[in-house]
Structure prediction request, 253 residues.
Amino acid sequence: MELSITGILIILLLLVIPLVLLHEFKVRILPRALRAIAKMIIYLALTGLCLKYLFEWDNLATSILWIIIMTIAGTVLTVSKARLSLKRNFLPVGAGIIAGALVVGLIVLCLALGVSTPFEARYFIPVFGLLIGSMVETNANALATYYMGLQHHNQLYYYLLGNGASHNAALTYFVKRAIEKAAIPNISRMAVQMVGLTPVLMWGMMLCGYSVVAAVEYQILFLAASFCASVVSMVVTLLIARKYSFDQYNKLK
Prediction:
């Protein structure tokens, strides 16, 4: 089942209903909603056009270039959502995203799905795109929690250092809070799947004609992979960030 041009236009016309209601009730987010709709259409159209040619070319170099672009975009978005310095956090966050997506993505493709050509564009790009996209929100919240904890509760950090604790030991509490913040949204997402309302991937696959069993399997695969990638990414990010967040005397910059 595929959408026709007419079907897409009808879907876009549906957006008129909430826009009219926003206007009638004088909710002052109408300009923001219009900008968001315009951005969605433009970004998705350009992304779809790029992916169309990437899948046709099926070239490893262009696929890797696309993943790098996605990683950069995910890194910038993560750092901006966490309200941190891009200059200081770009490398740690980017390395964490790459590590989480690469490790989990290759396990999914090679072992779970049994793909013999994991770097083929039609496999490589969608899996990595799903994983990178799933990390942005959770990692941003986790990083914000980590640095806010260090900033507002630095007495605990310096107290532990002053009493003989190592740098790693003094950071344990803050690292634990950050990893917890990265894990909890994924755990909560998995816990409510039985309600039958949230598994978007499953409903989408069923709508496209896949069997119920296949749709459920892929939903489980995606949730498990997202959970693993977020935690791995956050651990790698925090390990690398220590070099950029503390000076030679273990003082927070």
In short: The CA atoms of residues 63 and 125 lie 7 Å apart. The radius of gyration is 21 Å.
